[in-house]
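Hey all, quick one. A colleague (J.T.) asked me to put the manganese (II) ion job into the tracker so the inputs and the structure tokens live in one place instead of scattered across chat threads. No bug as far as I know, just bookkeeping. Sequence used:
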Amino acid sequence: MPPVQDLRELLERLGLDALYITKPQNVRYLSGFPHPEDAEVLLTEEGAFLLTDPRYPEAERESRLPAKVLKREEKAALLSGLRGRVGFEAAHLPYARLMALREMAPVEWVPTEGAIEALRLKKAPEEVEAIRRAQALAERAFHHALTLLKPGVRERDVALEIEYFLKKEGAEGAAFPPIVASGVRGALPHAGASEKALEGGELVTLDLGARVAGYASDMTRTVALGQVDGPLKEAFFAVLEALESALELIKPGVEAKAVDARAREVLKARGLDRYFVHSLGHGVGLEVHEAPALSPYSGQGPGPHLGLVLEPGMVVTVEPGVYLPGVGGVRIEELVLVTEGGIELLSTLPRGWQAL
Amino acid sequence: MPPVQDLRELLERLGLDALYITKPQNVRYLSGFPHPEDAEVLLTEEGAFLLTDPRYPEAERESRLPAKVLKREEKAALLSGLRGRVGFEAAHLPYARLMALREMAPVEWVPTEGAIEALRLKKAPEEVEAIRRAQALAERAFHHALTLLKPGVRERDVALEIEYFLKKEGAEGAAFPPIVASGVRGALPHAGASEKALEGGELVTLDLGARVAGYASDMTRTVALGQVDGPLKEAFFAVLEALESALELIKPGVEAKAVDARAREVLKARGLDRYFVHSLGHGVGLEVHEAPALSPYSGQGPGPHLGLVLEPGMVVTVEPGVYLPGVGGVRIEELVLVTEGGIELLSTLPRGWQAL
Ligand SMILES: [Mn+2]
Ligand SMILES: [Mn+2]
């Protein structure tokens, strides 16, 4: 949670009298309230407070911000007291909710994008700690999953055991449905986990994260089930080299897209860059995918451009991959904290070739 | 999925040349596509088709509607061909996405609410079948959970075993995080499952649902762990009577709010109506909570008013509850299909007093 002073400066910078925050991850960031989808934060020059409804009588205790538990008409009365220019989160707020707000408070409603996300770019020590705890749990789940990888076991069974393990061990849950992609399915970067059974001689890609205190982790390993040779093994070592070259480049002041470019160059030297069909990495925090983007398109396209240059306190994944259609795929993903001197690895698993 | 003719009539009734559907449950309803959060449906006088992106090369196979797999600029080109009045889903579409659409297609964008939800009110036989399968799985999970209810077991462990059971047995997942609320926590209707351990002499409320083929189920039982007497046992039988009175009333042509009122009257006769702090029930389908609402406020407030009168093919819960602050609570929830003659119970568990 940023100091109140930062929030006042934010209003000033945006030329706003107030900011009405509805995106759950931003509400959680500002308040710590664990039911952010049923709450909002109203930020004014007098300060910030949480708004929620009578389903949450204990909001005051669960929120770091002062909380107001309001019925619908009480909330309308409160909003009708707003004056001047009031910002809303344009990428999140549905049109009908904006119309309802306009009716309750006939002020100038001003679309904003990325205002709170910009504050979330650099993680505070307690945020890094939550991500670290999530990653530690995910690594234990990964070790557990390795014991299950046998021919005949279905991908979805492995994914289910990972989720169960994470929750049993105290995570709020998996940060996202675990990916277990074996054999030819490894060529689909967003494959999920299917009914397919693992077979000997296949690569298996495991991409998983845990959620702790609202914060996510994210990492990937690709392991061989039995003997695997040929183009997939070559791809593995190309991906590994791309990963390590990219990690070497990361430090404060480096452009996010330059890190992506470095990994792509390594793959290009092996003729594999056209099989690397996604971005190199992304920020991780209250969202699994957040700014900054380590991407060739970093700074392009619509939306706010956050994190174009790396700074200490950012937490990002570095995850090159090679996807050979009809053959299979490899992805290796590390989770790193950008530090003053370069990086600290938050993922601590060995990353070399591993045959089970 | 409604016949194409119904969709054409919908456009005509709304006075629209096209309708751009973004709410995932509506996209799934129209197309069957299992990744509806990454897709839209465009409905024009020529027909309906699914739009998605290159992450889903197999969309054509996975969608009942013709599918177009488009890159961003291809989608922009397609939308730029729109003419006339084009509806969008105001309760779902974020303001920024509407602005982007306006830029791609300078037509008259018209807010609509509840257009597809209205079609979803009456379930087709195959939809009822999916809900039935979900409910059957949930009932098996309930029986499994009963074997776990012992003093010392934490609520969250029971909830986790329910989720695991559901997925292991083939559900897409739990329809919502299972509620396991014991002792005084039973007084919180939306309590979730906590670290609290069960104790002898408590009531335990289990509220759970499964998801199958996109469709949810939802049901609740409250059971006694050991000996429970006094006001909670009295509340149980009052809730049971309220439930059964409400079930008797349900048939086509009855107002949804009259069913709610009937249950409230029964509780009032026992002086317990002020402890019944939520609506009597809700529709169930692709969403756990959808229209119709069996509620005193049915037909009031903002938003479209769908399902004010019950019709054959609607699937609703009936779930009276009594919540005694600081003491505990009781809720019993049945899942029913409205038929020509009255109801068919989709939930088949015994609903009487059960002490473990
Ligand atoms: Mn990732
Ligand atoms: Mn319910």
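Adding what we noticed when we looked at it: Chain A has ten helices and 19 strands. Chain A has two domains: 4-120, 125-345.
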